[in-house]
Write a structure and sequence with these properties.
Layout: E1 4-10, E2 15-21, E3 44-50, E4 54-59, E5 70-75, E6 79-85, E7 91-96, E8 101-107, E9 125-132, E10 134-142, E11 147-155, E12 161-167, E13 173-180, E14 189-193, E15 199-204, E16 209-213, E17 219-226, E18 232-239, E19 246-251, E20 264-271, H1 272-275, E21 285-292, E22 295-300, E23 303-307, E24 312-320, E25 323-331, E26 336-344, E27 351-352, E28 357-360, E29 365-368, E30 371-372, E31 379-386, E32 401-404, E33 412-418, E34 424-434, E35 470-473, E36 478-481, E37 494-498, E38 504-507, E39 514-517, E40 522-525
Parallel strand pairs: 28-34
Antiparallel strand pairs: 1-2, 1-3, 3-4, 5-6, 6-9, 7-8, 7-10, 10-11, 12-13, 13-16, 14-15, 14-17, 17-18, 19-20, 20-24, 21-22, 21-25, 23-24, 25-26, 27-30, 29-32, 31-33, 33-34, 35-40, 36-39, 37-38, 37-40
């Protein structure tokens, strides 16, 4: 019988670590006599013997490399510093990958202490300083594979800039988040410019959250960042309207036991950037009535609602009487204040404004009713026509526009309007019939340079949604067009087109004047 036994000793301490007995019979090695989970950091000496022979082997410590990496740790304008892991054995060498040339070799424990932490490197290592930017590699020992592994690293100058718009709790201050790469050399400088090019603020190594005085309108803010090596980046951020934008309305106020306007509500709606973002349903501002009819009062808002669709806050102050009120909005953490005055007038019963309806020939036409007084919303209803036309008797509707079908020859249309308080007004409108709705031509006196105070009276057919007046200017002169409306008609929109030219002028506000500079003979339409 052959007897076999394996013994393992720690070479450095000369102490027996473990002894294993091989099974009887013929044995060719296996798990029974393997030594496992031995700690790193020691050399081992193994003795193998049986009844006839004794043999031994020495195993050098195969310590883990402690991580396979090249670690740059300092960036300069034209160079950088790098650390290479040691292998607790021999040397560490660094090569330039672009030229495949050796930079230098250093002892594995050349830099025993991490200069940034003051603690020993777990696996030793070496450091190189002032290397030009580029590609480098080193070989790190891998104990699991019992071989060297090539580790490559490309190091470039850390150009890294970014900005974003942020908000403050102060309406008069906006904020920019200015970020540099953590490796970028200092100082880090940030300049903030208004849309007109004026410098708003300058910061140097002041952190990432930078404020500037709010630009009073929406506009594009320019941010220039510069690191310690002079590398720069320009970015644009669109600042919304941060200063308060608000609208005030009065709701309710129907006559009743509380008076002519008792029970009414003042509603102030303000932009989120001034009155506070959604903020979990809590505004960062307050709205208070501080005066009523020039007497000091203190009536805070009793409801605040976030309007998600319009991104606004709506503040309500309820059950107010007739009078003149001054509202104070206190905004943000610094209590920036703005004031508004609103007059709650006595209730006025609704009255329909229009005097008559106009029909051109037998065409279809539209009629728009308008109301003075009352409280919106209103409902409108045709009660009767002369002669009677049943298709028009359709009941109340929300719109004050009524379409009269073609072929109708009506003499009178009777309408009723009812406001939110339930009060109504009934009125019968006579129908004026015009034989034609053709455009009217403005005739220019050939003996005069221009026509002064020429009045064009037009009775349009609203069913066509537009009407046309043709006019022409035969000489180079200024063409002045002043759209207007008589007391019994309304003009809602006009446009002036320049014939034989690609551009056109369109305007919604008809009360203002329009002046067109005509440089050659041309025709126009309105």
């Amino acid at each position: 019988m052959i007897c076999s036994q394996d013994e393992e000793y720690s070479f450095s301490s000369r102490k027996l670590v473990e002894c294993r007995q091989a099974p009887s019979g013929v044995y060719n090695g296996g798990m029974t006599t393997n030594f496992q989970n031995l700690p790193f950091g020691q050399d081992y000496y193994v003795i193998v013997q049986d009844g006839c022979y004794r043999d031994s082997a020495f195993f050098k410590d195969k310590t883990s490399a402690g991580g396979s990496e090249l670690n740059p740790f300092a960036w300069h304008c034209n160079s950088f510093d790098i650390h290479a892991d040691g292998n607790n054995y021999d040397t560490v060498c660094l090569w330039n990958a672009a030229t495949n040339s050796l930079v230098s070799c250093k002892k594995w424990n050349d830099t025993a202490i991490n200069p940034r932490t003051g603690l020993p490197w777990p696996s030793g290592g070496a450091e190189w300083y002032g290397l030009p930017y580029g590609e480098y590699y080193a070989y790190i020992y891998d104990p699991c594979e019992d071989t060297l592994v090539r580790i490559d690293s490309t190091i470039r100058y850390p150009r890294s800039f970014s900005t974003s718009l942020n908000y403050t709790c102060m309406v008069t201050q906006a904020a920019i988040i200015s970020l540099f790469g953590p490796e970028a050399p200092r100082p880090h400088k940030t300049e903030i410019f208004y849309p007109n090019g004026q410098l708003a603020a300058t910061y140097t190594d002041a952190g990432t959250y930078l404020t500037y005085p709010t630009w009073p309108q929406p506009g594009t803010i320019t941010i220039i960042q510069e690191d310690g090596c002079g590398y720069r980046d320009t970015s644009l951020q669109v600042q919304p309207m941060i200063l308060p934008v608000r609208s005030i309305t009065f709701r309710g106020g129907c006559p009743g036991t509380a008076g002519n306007s008792g029970g009414g509500d003042i509603i102030l709606t303000g932009n989120a950037t001034a009155y506070g973002m959604q903020n979990n349903g809590i505004p960062s501002s307050s709205v208070t009535i501080i005066k009523k009819d020039n007497q000091l009062v203190n009536i805070p808002h009793n409801a605040a609602q976030w309007l998600a669709a319009s991104q606004q806050w709506m503040f309500t102050i309820s059950n107010l009487q007739t009078g003149t009120y001054i509202l104070e909005s206190s905004l943000g953490c610094a209590g920036y204040k703005v004031y508004d005055t609103i007059e709650i007038k006595p209730y006025v019963y609704p009255i329909q404004d229009q005097t008559h309806i106009t029909q051109c020939g037998t065409n279809s036409f539209a009629f728009k009713d308008s109301v003075t007084g009352g409280i919106a919303p209103f409902t409108y209803e045709i009660l009767n026509t002369v002669p009677y036309l049943s298709s028009l008797i359709t009941g109340p509707q929300q719109s004050g526009i009524f379409m009269i079908p073609p072929g109708s020859s009506l003499d009178t249309v009777q309408l009723r309007v009812i406001d939110a308080c339930g009060n109504g007004h009934v009125k019968s409108f006579p129908v004026s019939h015009l034989a034609s709705c053709l455009p009217l031509e403005v005739v220019i006196n050939p003996d005069r340079d221009h026509t002064e105070e020429k009045t064009i009276r037009v009775y349009p057919n609203p069913a066509t949604k537009q009407f046309t007046i043709a006019f022409s200017q035969k000489r180079k002169a200024e063409l002045l067009v002043i759209p207007g409306a008589s007391s019994d008609s309304n003009v809602f929109r006009s446009s002036v087109d320049r014939s034989r030219r690609p551009e056109a002028l369109h305007d919604q506000m008809l009360a203002s004047r329009r002046e067109l500079k005509e440089e050659d003979e041309e025709d126009a339409e309105m």
